[in-house]
Amino acid sequence: MANKNILLIEPDYKNKYPPLGLMKLAQYHGPHGKRDKVRFVKGEDPSVFGTAWDRIYITTLFSFEFARISTSIEYALKVANGHADKIFVGGIAASLMPEVFASKPGWHGIRFIQGLLTGSPSKALKLDEYSEELYSDDHHGPAIEDLIPDYGILDQIEYKYPVRDAYFAYASRGCIRKCTFCGVPKLEGDQRDAESITTVVRNIEARYGSKKDLILMDNNVVASPKFRDIIAEIRDLGFLPNAKLNTGRVPVQRRVDFNQGVDARILCKDPVYLRELATICLRPLRIAFDHLGLKSPYEKAIRYAHEFGLTSMSNYMLYNFHDSPGDLFERMRLNVTLNEELNLRIWSFPMRYQPTSLPDRSHVGEKWTRYQLRSMQLILQATHGVVSGEPSFFKRAFGNTVEEFQILLMRPHHFIFNRDHYDFHAGNAQLTEYKKEFAKLSDSERAELLRLIASVDPRELHGQVKLATAARVRSIMRHYLPLTKTEEAEIWAQKRAIQKEQEDLSIIVPDDERVEDAGLNYEEAAVPVIGKGARKKKVMAVA
Length: 543
Prior knowledge:
By secondary structure, the protein is an alpha/beta fold.
């Protein structure tokens, strides 16, 4: 039954890693499997309309990308000429909010697959043998989840994933934790060991050649009872400190990345964990720092890492959950302190919490406001999503105290968006005037100001001015009114002129060490990099 036409679709969002689920489906259907004709597209490609497709698979990633996912599903329906039964949708978003997908009336008949493609292919894909569906009799074939990914399909698209020259594998699946903000318990369940890393690496190598890096996508590898065996296996594969891969005239540096991070609550219990991690070419060491209650185990883990020579680190910082802006600031500030004391390189990546069942980014945490979240987003756009541990950079971006950070979050958004213009150039007089007025506000007046700006659309601020009861609040709100298009054009014209005279500011964190998604471009475009007159080595930023 070979030579069937199989179409794989990834929605047109920006993502760091290639779609492993689709790559494994390509392996199942491709030349080493069912010998079908497999086509992979990202977004929409009009050329696929000329083929009668026997099956169409769509992957999904973050639930807040539901709009783009919907576009891909509608596109697939057109490609399939309305034959919904030929379309299969799986992946993270489809698993986390199946009821949202199933409730769409126009999608009746599409199969939405939850979780991993374990078990026989016919069972995993919910195939109906009575209807004689394609491969519905495949009751005994290997699980699609256990197949190695087909790297060949990546050559069919123009999009280049920041991380692609790597072995993608799992040493374990699931997690021992049941964090309420995380989708892993629903996606993968309890923690368990996975297939041998060596087997996966050797099979990929035999079919697709050697890869530079080893990306292990475990959710909590240090919780595995076989942790030391896993690290020994990585060493045996040649991923030792300073390991290089010889693929041409110039050897390239290799690295291992546990890209979902490791658990500080386990790392702090025994220095053996960091001692073991220091025996491989780990870069960076990613440690989650999700709330201030983890300060003690997190700091202890960092000190153990320093003791064993691990100096390149990053961490994920959840915010907009049960935390407050002050909680987030204290976590970010701790890294500055540790960087200075231990001479480390710790990058922090604040990650805005959104419920895994929400199809957009509209959630506002109980201790945040919509305005503060937008301010934080603008600040992170200016720092390219990263919090540097370099003191002067951090102070400029986030302030030096909790109070300064909270005041910054209340600043008019165009002051943050056009930071250099108002801090150093033509807009400085207006910023100075605003600061003087803000300093005169009493606590109750600041609270009133925050209430007025907290959740309204910028276009509604004119109406909010009239609602101010305090004269000083009513006066300062003129600074919050959106700029006209003419004013914006003038600021950006001045900015372009100034940039021509300034040195190029380099971004020194490689693409492959950045986070998958931090929501930086949600609703708005990126803003200029902070750092007037900064020397290149002082610009700690990523995109």
